[in-house]
Amino acid sequence: MSSNDLFSVKGKIVVVTGGGKGIGRMISEGFVKAGAAKVYISSRDQKSLQQSADEMNKLPGVSGNPCVAIAADLSKADGVKSLVAEIEKREKHVNVLVNNSGNNWGQSYDEYPEAAWDRVLGLNLKMVFLLTQKLTPLLEASLPSKEGPWEDPARIINIGSVDGIRVPALETFAYSASKAGLHHMSRVLANHLGKRGITSNTLACGPFQSKMMAATLESAGDIIVQGIPLRRIGSPEDVAGACRFLASRAGAYVNGATITLDGGSVVSSKL
C-alpha cells in the first residue's frame, strides 16, 4: 500500500458538527481538500454555515461541491434528530463522525451558576452521546459485513481538550468537567462500538485560533505560547492532519485513544 493510499480519505462520507468555524472549520476543510466524497457541516447559524460551505467548495482543486451545510441546533435533542434525518435523506451510510460542537462558560467559583452546568454538559457531553447513538446505524451501514474483522472500520472522532486532562487556570468548571467526561465516554464507546466495527477516539486539543479562544489568546497569548514546548499555538494543518490519520487506513487500529494535540503543553514542566 502506498503512503497516499495509507492516509487516504477519498470517497468517504464525513459529518463534522460545528464544522463552519474554528477548529471545526479546520477539520472540515482538511477533509474537503483530501477528497472526501461529502463533508456535512452543521451548526445553528445557517447563513454563516452556508458561507463556510461555499468557501470550501471553491477551494483550488475541489470539485463537485462536496461540503454541504445543514443547520441544526445541536444543543437540543430535536436539533440532533433533525440533523440525522437530513443526512438519512441524502446518504445510505456515513464513514466518519467528528463530534466537535461545544461551548464554554467562565465565571468565578463563588458565582458559578447552575445554568452553566446545564448548557455546557448538555452540548459537550449529553448531545454528543445522542448524536452518536442516532448516527450509529449509518456508521454501521458503511461496513462490508457485521461480523468483522474490519480493516476499515467506521470512525468517531471526539474533539476534547487538554483542560479535560490538566487542571485549567481559568474558572471554567463545567467545561473542564465536560471534556474529562467526553474523554472517558469516548473510551467506553470504543469498547462497546468497536465490537460493531466503529472506532472511537479523542483529540485533546490545546490552544487553537477559534472564537472560544479568541479573547484568551488576545489577552494572554504570549504567556500561553511560552508554556508550550513547541512555542506556538495549533495550526489548521495540525488538527486536520490528526483527523485525517484517524479516519484513514493508517489509523484503523487506533481505538479508545485520547491523543493530546497540544504541542506538549500537558507535559511541559512548570518548575
Descriptors for this entry?
seven-stranded parallel sheet, 8 helices, globular
General description of the model:
With about 270 residues, this protein is an alpha/beta fold. About 45% of the residues lie in helices and about 15% in strands. The protein is built from eight helices and seven strands, in the order H-E-H-E-H-E-H-E-H-E-H-E-H-H-E. It has a seven-stranded parallel beta sheet, sandwiched between helices. Helix 6 links the parallel strand 5 and strand 6. The model has no long low-confidence stretch (mean pLDDT about 95).
Number of strands: 7
Major beta-sheet overview: 7 strands, parallel
The secondary-structure element order is HEHEHEHEHEHEHHE
Question: Can you give the mean pLDDT?
Answer: 94
Write out the strand line-up for the largest beta sheet, numbering strands in chain order: 3-2-1-4-5-6-7
Q: Any idea what the shape is?
A: globular
What is the beta-strand fraction? Answer: 5-15%
Query: Low-confidence spans: pLDDT under 50, at least 5 residues?
Result: none
Distance between the first and last residues' Cα: 46 Å
Number of discrete helical segments: 8
Question: Level of helix content?
Answer: 40-55%
Q: Helix- and strand-based class? A: alpha/beta
- Radius of gyration from CA coordinates: 18 Å
